[in-house]
What we know:
By secondary structure, the chain is of the alpha+beta class. Among the domains are: 27-219, Cullin Repeats (5 helical Cullin repeat like); 379-410 and 579-739, Ribosomal Protein S5, domain 2 (2-Layer Sandwich); 749-826, Winged helix-like DNA-binding domain superfamily/Winged helix DNA-binding domain (Arc Repressor Mutant, subunit A), CATH 1.10.10.
Amino acid sequence: MSMSNSPARRGKPKIRPPKKIGPETSMKDTWTKLSYAIKEIQNHNVSKLSYEEHYRYAYNMVLYKSGDQLYNGVRELITEHLNHLAEELIVPAFPRSGGTAGLGRSSGGGGGAEAVERALEGERFLKSVKGVWEDHTGSMRKVKDVLRYMDKVYTQAHSVPIIYEVGLHLFLYTIIRSTSPPIHTHLIGSLLSQVQLERDGETITRTTVRDCVDILLRLQDPAAPGAGTQRALSVYQTDFEPEFLRRSGEFYEAEAGEVLERGDASVYLKNVEKRLSQESDRTAHYLSPLTSPALLALVVSKLLTPHLTAILSMPGTGLRPMLDADRLPDLRRLYTLFIRVPDDVGRNALRTALKGDIEERGKLINEGGVIPAGAGPSQDGAAAEGGAEDEEMEGKGKGKAKEKGGGSEKAVGGAGALSLALGWVQGVLDLKDKFDRVLDEAFGGDKAIQTSINEAFQTFINANPRAPEYLSLFIDEHLKKGTKAKSEDEIEIALEKTIILFRFLSDKDKFERYYKTHLAKRLLYARSASDDSEKGMVAKLKIEMGFQFTQKLEGMFTDMRISAEGANTFRNYLNRHGALPLDLQVSVLTTSHWPPSVIATSPLIFPAPLTNTTSVFQAYYDSRHSGRRLTWQGNLGTADVKVRFKNRSHDVNCSTQALVVMLAFEDVRGEETLGYSDLKTITALPDADLVRTLQSLACGKYRILLKTPKGREVSPSDTFAFNEAFTCPLARIKIMQVAAARVETGKEREETEGMVEEERKFQIEACIVRVMKNRQTMGHNDLVSEVAHQLSSRFIPTTSLIKKRIEGLIDREYLERGTDIGTYRYLA
């Protein structure tokens, strides 16, 4: 503002103090001159005004006690000017729609030309408000300079706002909150309408909206708490934001219903994601960033929170179809949005749905893996179960003998049961791989969701009572020879995955029992594909369960190693005492290390050639060990013999039991036969073992014996003859011993369950004694809880079973009841 026409002077200009006027000078004239100057400033005619002169007028009015007249007079001038600007610039720009369209849902008639016209009308109105604001604030800055002395002296003395703040307050009440004319209604309505037009896809001028929002942010509500301070609420927060959030809530509530009706969860989630992005962008560019948290929370509360279950369970497009089709982007979007719901409501809903989905899938796997009761036998080298002696020995006879036999046979039953068992484990592993991938790629490895996934797997895996057996069979299938060729890396990966499933098992003691049986068979029949893989698996179990869990497993490896090392010692013994007619390799097994079901004693009468050989080893063993007793396990041995037929001889590999049966025909001539009862008397084999052996020799691919009548089943009335006419293009043939099914039958499973329950009784009692010995006195509930906790790593004991074992220990005087009710005391 120039406000001075004095000629330029040389040198530094000197500001002269305002010239005092006498009291005789009329304040009325001074105010007249000053008010004229203020009006000229408001009309932008400042070039002919002198700043010094009019500053002196204001100075004198304050000095001579006319500050009230000056302060109130300026207020009136500002008010008049604002009313004039409103009538001249703002009222003519009122939108024809009334500016009250707000944020309501579009009914379909608001698009096209009408929407464009609404946007232009709203823009013109907002520009008019912005123009008046700029006009007003520009003139107020000049007026503030003229009235600087009043602001410094009068306002402080009378505790009233400075004139610039007065101008802002007057602008608020005269323009922004004006109800007559209804500027306030049009302003708020126009701002809301512009936002709605953009939400509906129309283009608006964001800078215009931002300028008006800045005005509301600049103005403070004098009636709001903390007015005049930095913490005071702005007019934006008191007048615009509440209405904006209320109508936004109505808008999104209605939109949620419309989009949900389409029945597409993916489309719905994409819309939510788009709306959140749009609102975040909106608050960043032309609304206040302070609105962002509340606005985004509102979008979540309207579009997500009430509809979590509906989204997850939406037919054809919800969580289940997303998982079925591995739609990872949709699942990632689902997770990202759900975790925005406060108080973990969204995450918990997702966890519950995932857990239910996995349990349902697991139930289908369990139903598909049910083993039929009474499944038949399968081809395997396993032996029948039986008792155990103090020490057991497996003999493998290899040598030359004029024996009769040969043949090989495929599985005759139980293959379907084994396939179901392996398929169950593979199905669980595939399901685990699927959800591990979903967890990592869609859910960001969320630990809470991972916990729910693990709980679901644990639930349905333990719902299958045969899970421990199936898991051990699966490991057996990967570690034994004869399966599909697998690299060591593939085997290692499979074993790592089975350890994960092993962690889910609650009955780990059952798994231990099955695993010991399968490992024993692999070791005894030399079926392990890799010793390193075998030992690696035991090492993994040791890490999971500790030394005690794998102690007997490691004992099996020790027995096999010592037996292999002892072969050289036995060979040296033979060199000193004379060679045997047969090559004999013996594995000496410690009874306590091996499962009774594998090394069960099976009666077998060895013929003379074998008896002479075993007696030599017996003498050798007795010379090295005293007080030990050997029991020969004919059911665990194998033999290589040369069998002469009418046309040629064949090298036959068979079980020791098959060799004993073939030797029974050595003295049978011509067409003579031996009946089933004859063979039973000669061999002393139990019926089950004899039937399987005869099936191997007479009913398989290589029929060394001829059975009358023909057929695949063996009965006590059958007779057998040596097949002199046997022919085969192979020089060496292998006759596989038909054995009990690898998968337990219903009866076998009941027996296993009974043995496991019996073992658990001893383990529970040992745990109770261990706890009580340490604590001496303990309450019933505390004792039950502690015992259950300590045994939980192997199995989950029931409260009733623990209570029974406590009673048993009391009866045997290991414990006694305390003086207090419900307490026990340890008896040393």
